[in-house]
From TrEMBL:
It holds the Pfam family Glyco_tranf_2_3. The keyword RNA-binding does not apply. GO terms for molecular function: transferase activity. Gene3D superfamilies: Spore Coat Polysaccharide Biosynthesis Protein SpsA, Chain A (3.90.550.10). This is Glycosyl transferase family 2. Keywords: Transferase.
Length: 288
């Protein structure tokens, strides 16, 4: 089984090098590592890593960059593991992914049950992530759990069932819910699962991400777009909308140090106005 790792990155070359170097800790080494970025500067020194990654350029945008990876890996990989540039795998991650895919040909995609997610906790350092993996990873439940969709920071996809599927490039820049859109379509072709055998830590590092205003606009516009497309269930769309709007409203006066709540709220309001006026479009963030 040929397993290739694909990492889309922008603006974080030092972090990228650290996370790529950690791939060498895997008990089952990948058959290839591909990094896709908008410019040579985004790669930094990652190309010098011991895992010898391939480097490819692409127009900026998570969906565009991941599609570039899929195009390049067509015919070369049986499994493509998409990792964020701030995801740290537990040492047995790839071995567990291989075992699970081999055990059931009906599995189309796998995501990890995480030890910790820094997005919810203000971010972790590499050292904190490694310590948490060492302390907690072995104790996670190994049961295979069905999933409605996969978490984009770490998701392994079976290429035979991905034929003709691509990330939607109408969701620009950071994408936001591009993982839901793609994997809800993939779920029509095979099962999606997670397991504590497949785990790691999402650092949740903030640098290089979309601005608060753009993300706030996407929090509304992308949901509306995916509802019209039919690739997000209504219950999830409503939960995401109200959770984000309420958080931005309540916390804007006293925001967390790492979150631009005022910018997100302004983006929410701009998107709601565009919705009322019938001109809402996820691609507008590229002009903000």
């Amino acid at each position: 089984m040929r397993i290739h790792i694909a990492i889309a990155t922008v603006g974080r070359p030092a972090l990228l090098r650290e996370t790529v170097d950690l791939i060498a800790r895997q008990t089952r080494r990948p058959d290839g590592v591909l990094i896709v970025a908008p410019s040579q500067e985004d790669f930094g020194t990652a190309g010098e890593s011991a895992v010898r990654p391939d480097l490819a350029l692409s127009p900026k945008g998570l969906c565009r960059q991941r599609n570039r990876a899929l195009d390049l890996l067509e015919g070369r990989a049986d499994i493509v593991l998409f990792l964020d540039d701030d995801f740290v795998m537990a040492p047995g991650y790839l071995a567990a992914v291989e075992d699970l895919f081999a055990s059931d040909p009906g599995i189309a995609g796998i995501t990890g049950n995480l030890v910790a997610d820094g997005v919810r906790h203000g971010g972790f350092t590499i050292q904190q992530a490694l310590a948490r993996i060492e302390q907690y990873a072995a104790g996670l439940d190994h049961a295979i759990t069905p999933r409605t969709a996969l978490y984009g920071c770490n998701m392994a996809l079976r290429m035979a069932q991905m034929r003709g599927l691509r990330f939607d490039e109408a969701l620009p820049l950071y994408g936001w819910q591009e993982d839901i859109d793609l994997t809800m379509r993939l779920a029509r072709r095979g099962s999606l699962v997670s397991s504590g055998r497949v785990t790691g830590v999402h650092l949740g590092v903030r640098g290089g991400r979309t601005s608060g205003l753009r993300l706030g606009y996407s929090q509304v516009a992308n949901i509306v777009y995916l509802l019209h497309k039919g690739t997000i269930p209504m219950w999830l769309a409503q939960r995401l909308f109200w959770q984000n709007l309420a958080a931005n409203l309540l916390r804007a006066p006293f925001p967390e140090p790492h979150i631009d709540r005022a910018g997100r709220l302004a983006g929410n309001m701009r998107a709601l106005l565009d919705l009322v006026l019938g001109r809402i479009d996820p691609r507008k963030i590229e002009r903000m």
